[in-house]
Amino acid sequence: MSIIRQEDVIQSVADALQFISYYHPLDFIQAVHRAYEREESQAAKDAMAQILINSRMCAEGKRPICQDTGIVTVFVKVGMNIQWQGDLSLDDMINEGVRRAYTHPDNVLRASILSDPAGARKNTGDNTPAVIHTSIVPGDTLDVQVAAKGGGSENKAKLAMLNPSDDIVEWVLKTVPTMGAGWCPPGMLGIGIGGTAEKAAVLAKESLMDPVDIDELRLRGPKNRVEELRLELMEKVNDLGIGAQGLGGLTTVLDVKIKDYPTHAASLPVAIIPNCAATRHVHFELDGSGPAEFTPPKLSDWPQITWDAGPTARRVNLDTVTREDIAQWQPGETLLLSGTMLTGRDAAHKRLLGLLDSGEGLPEGVNLKDRFIYYVGPVDPVREEVVGPAGPTTATRMDKFTDQLLEQTGLMGMIGKAERGQVAIDSIKKHKAVYLMAVGGAAYLVSKAIRKSRIVAFEDLGMEAIHEFVVEDMPVTVAVDVNGTSVHQTGPAEWFKKIHDAQPVTVK
To answer: Lesser CB count within 10 Å: N end or C end of the chain?
Structure first.
């Protein structure tokens, strides 16, 4: 029998969340490096280089891998012989650990959790509550798996109630391209099969806690149907040519994880949940001897990767750039941005359009004419920082606001991550604007280009307030040009063709 102290649970959860905020799992880093070394698409290779460099920088600086420090998900297995020392419920212990982690003064993590989700959507301020899955098991230990799941990848989760005769592989291959690049590939696909609708989703999420081991599985060969599916899906999903950040390439997924469960004879539930390039999870066990200890990886475990934009990168002064200038930018071209930009996410866009609709006009300090807006919700700064990690958020969430904003404000360009939907592309073409893409999963690296930051509007929105950034040599890619050409359409199509043209023809 073990006596588990309340304080040990709280401190272990807090330490775990701080640990995973700046240390990638080593198996993930090794998998990205292997993908980087075999990648033939230069755009995808550059994106993975930035992810690897960012990861090492975060490990050195102990700052978040991504500005979206996630919604906390916890899987807890409670030994039946445990006795507790404390007066809080287990959920309350875990949430107190979350609170401590996200408000830690040396490494403040972004509070992203909103209460009243269908109403006021008010930020809870400390990233609580966590999503907690608890099971009671034999034994006298507390087994805990902690993850911090970014909203961009979580939003791409898919669930289908297939017919028993349907082909799971066919459904996955049809579904993955509809997920776009907002989940920041390369990452992992978690798949849950069976049970009921909610069980399949939980299985998919839980599978993402497992280590990257697809290469070992490939070497020894599959032992059951689930392992056969993993290998088949790994190959066929990568053959789609989506590539890192959706730019086209050889590697879209680093591993495919599957968990299954018995299901009803009339049912075949299947859920997909992707993990992004900011994969963050850790496992620990408490046996009554004290809080968990986390051993950091050695910096020598990170690959020595260097990256620069190269001599062909176009330097752009955002304070003087003109419509004539942006008309010369080519799809896929690398730009280095310097000068002043504004930021804005979902809540800020909604409020801006509300002000325009009411006739009040934009708030003081928010002049968008011939300017660029960056879709970002940065982490608060610590110590000498101008701003905390400040990587891009998924641009498609702003698609519905794009035409009115371009039409009524004279906005020239937008910066975000992943693709734009057709409605936004059509609007960009109509207004001769541009959309630029920054690499998702490289938030700390991006923040080093930001020289000044101040809030200019909507401070009450917290991380969704409108900031003014002054940047120097911020690297971006022209993702949609003034003619409406999107690299997220042309890139994957090109690499799908290359991959399939290179495959041997089977003669029957």
So the answer is: C
